[in-house]
Write a structure and sequence with these properties.
By secondary structure, the chain is α/β, with parallel strands linked by helices. It has three domains: about 1-65, ACT domain (Alpha-Beta Plaits, 2-Layer Sandwich); about 70-215, Rossmann fold, CATH 3.40.50; about 225-309. Helix content is about 35%, strand content about 25%. The protein is built from eleven helices and 15 strands. The protein has helices spanning about 15-25, 50-60, 85-100, 120-125, 140-145, 190-215, 225-230, 235, 260-265, 275-280, 300-309, and strands spanning about 1-10, 25-35, 35-45, 60-65, 70-75, 100-105, 130-135, 160, 175, 245-250, 250-255, 270, 275, 280-285, 290-295. The strands form four sheets. It has a five-stranded parallel beta sheet with strand order 6-5-7-8-9, covered by helices on one side. A four-stranded antiparallel beta sheet has the order 2-3-1-4. Strands 10-11-15-14 form a four-stranded antiparallel beta sheet. The two termini are about 35 Å apart.
């Protein structure tokens, strides 16, 4: 299984680091240079992690773990209003960013009210575009138990965050962290920060299970390799939106209009195959100004090839 690490140090002898990453079959996910300082987020095979760490220390840098790098996570509350959008949602999104994830805060259009709260098929489709969902509820047990029904049919891993523990709803979520609920202030004290760390660790554990399932039937190509191929495409290179390409566990989000660019994307060559043959390329459910790429597994590609003959 691949492990994600971050090098933080100088550019001195950094070429040795890039050569070693390539030699072990790893991939550079992100590279940022500021003057003489360099930050590199990389995905490397687990068995070569110690060798990479040793070289990073030898060339004078620090090695940090960013277990959620290469993922995009939705942090969802019932609404975006003051009544339902408490400070913990922002703090949860921030702690996940510090672990390497790209996070999006989202509220439901009709989430207010225990007996009137709803989630539409479009909203479920949007949430299903992400690698995981952190669904945040409040302090009242009966309300939490009622609103957990909103997440029943989601297809992505769901971590429920609430005040009390709901009873009889274990089949609606993949993991739960209680003791948070709504708060009128930021989560700054030691107990609150421990809860934030617990949420981050829980999301990491849930996504680790998903990574293991992907390893059982590997993707035809690593998403980071597709990103490297597409980063020279001028519309992506000139895109002014934050993070024009966002990595997912099984693909990536590209923030360019689907209608204008899907023909090019489908015909990009990856290991001698067109990208459209080894991945599903679809417009985002948010709007058609983004493209969602889901890479097929090797077994899927082999199965489709066998039925073409």
């Amino acid at each position: 299984m691949f492990e994600v690490m971050m090098y933080d140090g100088g550019i001195y002898r950094s070429d040795e680091l890039f050569e070693l990453i390539e030699d072990v079959g790893g991939v550079v996910l992100q590279k940022n240079r500021s003057s003489q300082m360099l930050t590199v987020i990389m995905s490397v095979p687990g068995e070569d992690k110690e060798e990479i760490s040793r070289l990073c220390r030898d060339i004078g840098g620090d090695v940090k773990e960013v277990p959620l790098a290469g993922t995009e996570i939705a942090v969802v509350g019932p609404t975006l209003g003051r009544h339902h959008m408490p400070h913990p949602i922002c703090d949860i999104a921030e702690i996940l960013r510090r672990a390497g994830a790209v996070t999006v805060v989202m509220g439901l259009a009709r989430g207010r009210g225990k007996n009137t709260s709803q989630i539409s098929a479009v909203e479920k489709g949007i949430i299903d575009e992400y690698d995981a969902c952190v669904f945040c509820l409040g302090n009242f047990k009966t309300c939490v138990e009622k609103k957990t029904e909103l997440i029943r049919d989601l297809h992505v891993p769901v971590v429920l965050v609430s005040g009390p523990m709901p009873e009889g709803k274990e089949d609606t979520y993949d993991a739960i962290v209680t003791g948070v609920g709504r708060k009128a202030a930021r989560m700054k004290d030691a107990e609150d920060r421990a809860k934030l760390d617990e949420i981050s660790d829980t999301v990491e554990a849930v996504l680790k299970d998903r990574k293991l399932s992907i390893e059982e039937d590997p993707l035809f190509v690593h998403p980071a390799e597709v990103k490297q191929i597409l980063q020279e495409y001028e519309p992506i290179d000139m895109c002014l939106r934050p993070a024009p390409m966002v990595l997912h566990l099984d693909g990536l989000r590209i923030k360019i209009p689907y209608a204008e660019h899907h023909d090019y994307l489908e015909n990009v060559m990856v290991y001698g195959r067109k990208l459209g043959e080894v991945a599903y390329i679809q417009p985002s459910r948010i709007d058609e100004s983004s493209v969602i790429i889901r890479i097929k597994t090797r077994s899927q590609v082999e199965y489709e090839d066998s039925h073409k003959q």
